Amino acid sequence: MLGVIRPTTEIIGQYSETREVGILATKGTVASGSYPIEIEKFYPDIKTYQEACPMWVPIIENNEMDNQGTHYFIKKTCIACFIKARIST
User: Fold this and answer.
1) Cα-based distances in Å from 16 to 9, 22, 60, 82
2) H-run or E-run covering 28
3) pLDDT digit string (tens) for 19-60?
4) Closest CA to 43 of 19, 74, 71, 78
5) From CA 51, how far away is CA 14, in angstroms rounded?
6) Which residue among 54, 72, 85, 86 has the highest number of C-beta atoms inside a 10 angstrom radius?
7) What phi-psi label fits residue 33: left (phi over 0), alpha (psi between -120 and 50 degrees) or beta?
8) How far apart are CA 10 and CA 51, in angstroms?
9) Is 57 helix (H, G, I), strand (E, B) or coil?
10) Domain ranges of the chain
């Protein structure tokens, strides 16, 4: 897991003008807290918000990325992450 997380967290601060980052990941990754832990090491000033995306794995595995149902789940997950960010500020 750190093979994906670590390289991302090393550069993520270069792409955040607001110093806030939303992480969309599997339930396990969100539960592990790996992204916030690693981001804190490189960019202690960045506030991290996470949202689990349990529906995304079967969508991707079944090559169903471009349809209305998929767009619904993407929008729903992104909005949930934005809401978490706004509530905590």
Assistant:
1) 12, 10, 27, 15
2) helix 27-32
3) 999 999 999 999 999 999 999 999 999 999 999 998 888 988
4) 19
5) 21
6) 85
7) left
8) 20
9) helix
10) 2-88
Q: Which 3 state secondary structure label does DSSP give 25?
A: strand
Residue matched to tokens 């003008």: 17
Pairwise CA distance, residues 21 & 13, whole Å? 9
How confident is the model at residue 37, as a pLDDT?
Answer: 96
pLDDT of residue 2: 54
Residue 53: both structure tokens together: 């995306």
Residue that is written with structure tokens 């506030």 in the block: 47
- From the options 3.30.450.40, 3.20.20.80, 3.40.50.1860, 2.40.30.170, give the CATH code of 2-88: 3.40.50.1860
